[in-house]
């Protein structure tokens, strides 16, 4: 089955930038583009929003206009549109299941009444079993130029980041971009508070060589699969979120993994993904762990 690139739009500048990004990605991958709007009738006492039929017509016209903008730029791209009535999170998670990836604006709600990418967007990340890409309003095709890297975060054992690495290597290969693989590390508390332990650590060769070997081992199968992708191995002491953001300025795309995190107050996307989504200017892809 051919999975489309699916863009969820709500009429905001952010979601229209996401739609433009999704269209370029669909062209790069030779896939169709599906444009989706999650809609539910909303009346307001202070504003004439029309009845349900009128409001739905307005929504369909706006979605159709957004799709026409894409087909004008990419006349050979197969584009379909869907206006789906229902809860925003459930609708977006549902369409993500059938997509190669789901692409959303990074935040905001606009003239088409729809999802607020913020609280809803984070819920979609938690529930979606496919990669979810977030795009800010300022994203432009000019950001996808030579010298702008695909950045991916790697952590833990090779299998812990396999899905994110696979996505990032393919993205870099299709763009002809350098891939920067980032592994951040911190000192265990016993070393942070014990000078004697630090001396023993130095005599053993230090933690950084261990982290470098761990990153190299995780990258090895993907280097073999994508031999033409130039890879920069980046190992740095610090929090993962801070290290990733320190190299975001030269990134055209950032890729982070997501592990299921269930707590007493509900599911969470993790501090690294949360920080990168809020502070990186480039598009960010969150890939669920396989």
UniProtKB/TrEMBL annotation:
* InterPro entries, A to Z: Rossmann-like_a/b/a_fold (IPR014729), Universal_stress_UspA (IPR006015), UspA (IPR006016)
Pfam families attached to this UniProt entry: Usp
- What superkingdom does the record give? Bacteria
Residues in UspA domain copies: 1-136, 157-288
The record ties this protein, via SUPFAM superfamilies, to: Adenine nucleotide alpha hydrolases-like
Cross-referenced PANTHER family, in alphabetical order?
ADENINE NUCLEOTIDE ALPHA HYDROLASES-LIKE SUPERFAMILY PROTEIN
Q: Which family does it belong to?
A: Belongs to the universal stress protein A family.
Q: What is this protein called?
A: Universal stress protein
Q: State the species of origin.
A: Streptomyces viridosporus T7A
